[in-house]
Amino acid sequence: MDSLDLIITFREVARRGSFSAAARALDLSPASASKYVAALETRFGVRLFNRTTRKVSLTDAGQLLYERTGPVLELVQLTEGELHERATKPSGRLTVTAPPALMQTAAPTLLGRFLCLHPAVSLSLRLTNRVVDLVEEGVDVALRIGPIPDASLIVRRFRQVERSVAATPAYWQAHGRPEHPSELATHRTLAVSQHDGTPVWQFLDRGKPLSVSLQPLVEASDIMPLLTMALQDLGVVYMSTLAIAPYLESGALEAVLADSIPQDYWLYAAYTQRRHNSAALAALLAFLEEEMRPLGPNDLAPLQLPPVPGAARKNS
User: With a threshold of 0.85, does the pTM exceed it?
Assistant: First the structure.
């Protein structure tokens, strides 16, 4: 029995003036009802009822407890109703973290469509490339792109993300094309740096993981400025093939080392618990999974990309 059961039993006895009547209303035995009230009296160290063989009445202390617990029970009942609604109907605020680059894609449009379908839900978007501690920072779900290193998280994979190592033809002509990933350590690289320390690019060498430490020409907390710089012949980028597909197709960028790139990058959602999630979180995960399934190869490509060099001349 918990404190709430004790208070409910106490108030029912007070309303009906009888342990047996209260027990019938609560589907308890009279002995259990008496035991619950006795437990309260022991906890507070004061008698709550005057008892006779025919009826019971509140003492002064009992009257005080009765008056003070009324608003508390009303609040509990109201909260129970709201919690039940959160568990069964998508509503309330969801806190979502995602990398800023993902918001340059169709992702905001998908989130907007989700909100239109579920008008009782609101979103708090926290955009960062930092790997957020979901529990410590009170985040419901993380939308992430990359490998999935944290085995403690529940992961919903949406789609695989292909990546390319690329630079302009002019850059490759000036600096040579690498034949092995380790050669990139001496190239002018444009890299995302999410943590203190030397940026590292991950590859495969004959099926085994290979880490290449870089001394980048430019490092940034987000990928998008690096693409613009790569198109200026400044260096090599390693990023989503979706993001640079127009430049690969036009020849503005040329990819290398395709056979050395791991296939463990995913667009995925990570959250902390498998059970007892809110209806809003369950609905968001189901919506994203359904919407991602029929996507074509460029449906998540950035909405606002730098101009493709030579495109205007090509179309004129």
Answer: no
